[in-house]
Amino acid sequence: MGKSRARRFRRTPFCPPGPEQRCDGQGGPEDEPAAELLEKVQHPSAEVREYACAGISTLLQQKHVIPAFLQRDVVRCLGPLLMDHSLAVRETAAGALRNLSACGGFEVCDDMVTKDIMTPLVALLKECSTGLDASQLSPKKSREMNKNYIEDIANEAINLLWNVCECNNTAVHIFNKEGCLEAVLHYLKKFSTNVDLAISVANCLQAVTEDNPDLLPSFNASAQQVLETVMLCPESTMKHILLRTLTAGTVWNIKNTIPPSSLGSTVNAILKIFSESLAIDASETIIRMNEAEKTRLKLAAEAETEENMSDVIDSCVLSEDDDMEEIPKGKVRRENDISDLLPSDKWELKEVTALLTAQQTALEIIVNMCCSEDPSDDEWEELSSSDESDLFMENSYNEGSGLLMSPLCLSDEVNSAFLNNLIPKKILEKTAFPNSVALDICMHNPSWKPLIKKLNAVQCRALMCLHSILLVSDVDCLGGASALQSLAQHLSQLVFSKPELPTDTEFLEAITSALRALLQTMASKNISQQCMTPEQLLLLCEAGVHSSNASVRVNVVSILGISGSVLAKGQDTAETLKMIGKFLLEVAMKESSLVVAGEALDALFDVFADGKEAEKAAVQIKLLPALKEFQPVFKMRMRKEGKGQYSTDQLCVLDNVKMNLRRFIAYQETLGKTPT
Predict the structure, then answer these.
(1) Does 356 score more than 90 pLDDT?
(2) Where is this region: Disordered (predicted)?
(3) Alpha-carbon distance 650 to 658, whole Å?
(4) N or C terminus of the chain: which is more exposed, having fewer CB within 10 Å?
């Protein structure tokens, strides 16, 4: 029977656009003034250059205008402006290039690196880093005037660096070679006064440290101390929780630089940060923050009304006394005027967004902790044949097996810390559907509506995280047989609690992956499976095989095979086995993907491997003649479709399926000759 593989999450390719920005492909007329704006960036006036860069930045949020700018060499036009004499021009130019990288995609980022955007970008980052220190030595007035400019420029530049490094290995190589880590860590030290800049840095660091062994020697004791200081920061805002989570992800990426004596405590600190993030109820936070927003807006409206009335009164008083010294309009300050102290616009929404991003990040890193670090494991949906499955189960708990590692791949002490931090319990809580009240708030508030997608993403990541934990954890660590049976009921309820089966591809992939891992764990330990009726099982599989996602199709076929092999050991199950057999045969013969067809054959081998009920059902559905007829078709498909469409590992698995098909046919023929 095919065993699922743990999926290793890759980071999201692009950082989100800046405040109030979007990449929605919508915008103005087709004939955008690209040429006019690019001409103005060469203007002698800094104000004109700033205006042009701001206009380009806005237009580049609209995907359909990006080709027009690329044709006019926008990268080489804006690149030199990163070192413009005007700080305002630097900031708007960096923002425009950031939007280009975020909205343009991988090919645009590659093109930016090819056109040498890294040279001015690296120079800007280093100069801004030096500028941070210089501003602290300047007189107070100068420091206040320049500090925000420098940090804002740095924030745009760091986000641009993050984007191109996510997409281009040459950019990462330049990051390593030019010693950018020192400058980037210098920005991270500003976390106590500029958390937004620190979050951008932490995102960038997590990206450049992933699968980058050449960078590891740069993480000396001083660099690690900076990361440790951030992880220990006591602030409790959601943005700081996100910052700590991202920094913990970077520390996990560089774990090979940590002395063995400190590794256990370091990973325990990472898990505590993840536990802190996952412990927060996002739905309740949405409800609470929405009320806070309403209160803030109400107070702001009242304060504005009060100030307007005061201005009217002041105007009347001034008109009655011509000798009174004129007070500049808007400068009257009252003791109870709190408008200057109110939080910035939409801070509540930003806090919730930061929380959901932190939770999603934590879950993705936990998944990676449970996975082999072999890059070939990106083909996470690959299949294992019956023979390979036994080897898989024997090796899945052994360190260094190259397949899967024990939880956190470390010592028993650290593994126990994984459980002591209640990580599995908190992950399970995140697999539930979001609170209906929170969803209603998001649905009826346009600016909050994007949170629905983030809530769903957290749920799906939690299910994938559960899938990975099930693959690498011992049954006793998971709470024993009763806990697994309760978990099976919970997952079944997620599928069948609503009138219609879920259709979202990401959710289907996540829930079927978790179900597959759970059922194969229960089957391997002979734990009773009663979470779905045969009718529900076939209903789920029928929906799954029509999914456009091959991983979903693989999962449901495997689930059917696992359940069928368990039923084959029971009594009076021949009718159900007939339905399962017919279903799997149809998938094997009609499925467009050889990988899914191979999994269906593998499932058939398991369901009809043994047992009187299975033998009876096999005869009634004419399994043997159907497989003998299909065997040459499968061989021909492998010859025609195999090379070029599938990875080497997938072809090895399919070759094993082909061999097992021949063996299974021979086995069925033997059964037919055996006297009953």
Answers:
(1) yes
(2) 1-32
(3) 12
(4) C
Q: What is the pLDDT of residues 94-106, one digit of tens each?
A: 999 999 999 998 9
CA distance 102 to 282: 27
Q: What's the mean pLDDT when you consider all of the chain?
A: 83
Architecture of domain 33-134+149-218: Alpha Horseshoe (1.25)
d(CA 286, CA 273): 21
Determine the number of helices (DSSP H) and then strands (DSSP E) in the chain: 30, 0
Distance CA 253, CA 172 (A): 15
Tens-place pLDDT, residues 315-333 = 555 555 554 343 333 333 3
Q: Measured between alpha carbons, how far is 623 from 582 in angstroms, rounded to an integer?
A: 9
Q: Is the separation of the CB atoms in 425 and 418 below 8 Å?
A: no
Query: DSSP label at 121?
Result: H
* Alpha-carbon torsion, ordered 453, 456, 457, 461, to 10 deg: 180
- Lowest-pLDDT range of 333-337, 346-350, 647-651: 333-337
Q: Report the range of poorest mean pLDDT among 122-126, 304-308, 623-627.
A: 304-308
Report the distance separating Cα 251 and Cα 210, nearest Å. 10
Residues 343-347 have a mean pLDDT of 69
Rounded to the nearest angstrom, the gap between the alpha carbon of residue 604 and the centroid of all alpha carbons in its chain is: 35
CA angle 138, 139, 140 (to 5 degrees): 115
Comparing CA positions, the residue from 510, 463, 455, 457 lying closest to residue 487 is 463
- Residue 404's DSSP bridge partners are 371
| Two tokens, residue 637 | 């498909």
Tokens of 264: 């256990």
Do 403 and 26 meet the contact criterion of CB atoms below 8 Å apart?
Answer: no
The set of residues, in sequence order, having a beta carbon less than 8 Å from that of 13 and lying 6+ positions away, is: 106, 166, 167
Which residue type does 484 have?
L
CA dihedral 262, 268, 274, 277 (to 10 degrees): -110
Which pLDDT tens digit goes with each residue over 2-33?
A: 455 555 555 554 444 444 445 654 444 544 58
